[in-house]
Amino acid sequence: MFKTLKNDIPSSIVVFFVALPLCLGIALASGAPLFSGLIAGIVGGIVVGSLSGSKIGVSGPAAGLAAIVLTAIGTLGGYQNFLLAVVIGGIIQLIFGLLKAGIIGYYFPSSVIKGMLTGIGIIIILKQIPHFFGYDKAFTLFKVNGESTITQILNIFDHIQLGSTIIGIVGLAILLLWDKVLSKKGKIFQLVQGPLVAVVVGIIFFIVTKSNDTLGIDQSHLVSVPIPEDAASFLGQFSLPNFSAITNPEIWIVAFTIALVASLETLLCVEATDKLDPHKNVTPTNRELLAQGTGNIISGMIGGLPITQVIVRSSANIQSGGRSKMSAIIHGFLLLISVILIPRLLNMIPLSVLAAILFIVGFKLAKPSLFKKMYDLGWKQSIPFFVTVFGIVFTDLLVGIGMGLAVGIVVILIKSFQNSHFLHIEDKSNGKHKIKMTLAEEVTFFNKGAILKELDSLPRDTYLELDVRKTRYLDNDIIEILDDFAFKAKERHIDIQLISERGIVENPDSFIEFFKLRPKTA
To answer: I need a surface site. Which of 62, 282, 374, 395 has the fewest CB within 10 A?
Structure first.
């Protein structure tokens, strides 16, 4: 783990600069104290990073939980009551881990996971557009107060703040130059990462231009970290849960919701992060649930937001060359040190520079070439992918994933319908059509429609050869269909030859009786 510090330290710095505004922004969006987002980022880095089995995953407050948190704080009657729900949610996650529930993440199709990554990348870019141009109003994809998407974009250009825009463009140019040219020129450019240089240049630009009416950047377009006056005021920013509200059933409902949603987001991010990992490490999912549960218990106990593994930070870690969990742990310590020692310096960072960093992160997640690649793979891969992207961008993360998963299930049903059997038709023999039907290795109730359709379409005076030698599992629903067909076959003058591993049976009287004697699974 310590052997890779030369890679992990630079990547941890990048992740720190990505995580800092996200921690604050998610806390703001959640209606929680800004410091609660930083607590969650610190705990996610140090505690979860230490306990997790993921080498490159980074945890912290998640945007996908912001709406749940915002609603819950209001319905539970205060932030301290909500913290209790976070603690209980963490305990429930520990139970999930002990029950080996981490396997759930493996049941999500690859196309849906790629769609999730792409959708998040697009959202990252869209959400940073206002910050890049120094525009105060949040950008949305729906009509707001009669404004369409196009109107909102045009409004951004009507309210550009020159200073923010200039340093945003400069920061973006530095990042592109570093990524495409300088990183290949020498080790110094690999050790000192482009995002760090962009942030330093941004701070210098703010200091130089702050007295300039035209180029000066307004305080609202800078990072805003709480500044404690002394040790007592710093400790006063932490909050404790209200344990006296433990009998409130609404707290338990919120706790279970947090546990379920946070676990699902984590498992999906683990799957996605492992796919992005150039070294193809596999994260133990049950251990991840135990780590996340522990992190949420600690975060809730000291006033932090709920935690999940977060794809934005994780992908930034991967793209910056992170190799081990030390990157996540160091980024947690950097967050802790920064809010204690240098909050005033952090508050000089223009949000437009951080937006430029996130533009690059978002673009790498949603490359145009990926859209073409998924389209070229065919409709069975492309439709779940595009539906997931559309759902995430125009609704939210979980709804989009649900939409993609639903379409993925429909695709599986269609494939099952098509692949239940193989049919071979021969020429007439002795005045009868000879048709051979070979059943698949596993035939379930999903295949009922396809098999019924084939059997019902058989012409009169047919000789049907039914081969079940390769079939390892035959659902009882299918056996009943075959049994009903055996009765109807006599009326239609259809002869049946059943070929199994026990031999050949001509015109079996009862398929049900036959398969009682033959195990359905081998």
So the answer is: 282
- Asked if pLDDT for residue 14 goes beyond 70, the answer is yes
Structure tokens at 178: 């570093």
Which of these, 497, 502, 498, lies nearest to 519 by C-alpha position?
Answer: 502
Q: Distance between CA 256 and CA 48 in Å, rounded?
A: 20
Whether 426 contacts 435, CB under 8 Å? yes
Q: Decide if 464 contacts 438 (C-beta within 8 A).
A: no
Burial class (CB in 10 A: 0-12, 13-18, 19+), 184: exposed
Whole-number percent of the chain with pLDDT over 90: 29
- CA separation for the pair 330, 323 (Å, rounded): 13
DSSP state letter for 106: G
Please, what is the angle between helix 79-98 and helix 249-276, to 10°?
Answer: 60
Beta strands in 451-521, from DSSP E residues, in sequence order:
462-467, 473-474, 495-500, 503-506
**Average pLDDT for 177-195:** 77
* Lookup result for tokens 């610190």: 42
Alpha carbon 60 to its chain centroid, in Å, reads 14
Distance in angstroms (rounded) separating the CA atoms of residues 372 and 385:
11
Residue 113 pLDDT > 70: yes
**Using CA atoms, how far apart are residues 479 and 489, in angstroms rounded to an integer?**
15
Q: If 0-12 CB within 10 Å is exposed, 13-18 middle and 19+ buried, where does residue 214 land? A: exposed
Are the CB atoms for 217 and 131 separated by under 8 Å?
A: no
Query: Cα dihedral sign for 391, 40, 294, 239?
Result: negative
Question: What pTM does this model have?
Answer: 0.71
Interval 196-201 mean pLDDT:
87
Most confident listed range (5-14, 247-256, 504-513): 247-256
Q: Which tokens hold the place of 405? A: 């998963």
pLDDT at 275: 83
Residue with tokens 């945003």: 168
CB 166 within 8 A of CB 218: no
Confidence band, pLDDT 50/70/90 cuts, at residue 112: confident
Tokens matching residue 506: 């001509």
Dist. CA 92–CA 84, nearest whole Å: 12
**In the structure encoding, which two tokens stand for residue 377, read together?**
């793979």
- For the chain, the distance separating the N- and C-terminal CA atoms, rounded to the nearest angstrom, is 46
Instruction: Please report, as a single letter, which amino acid is at residue 25.
Output: G
Residue in the structure block whose two tokens are 């890679």: 7
495 vs 509: CA distance, rounded Å: 12
Euclidean distance between CA atoms 296 and 304, whole angstroms:
8
Q: What is the pLDDT of residues 240-293, one digit of tens each?
A: 999 999 999 999 999 998 998 899 889 988 988 988 888 888 889 999 999 999
CB 167 within 8 A of CB 205: yes
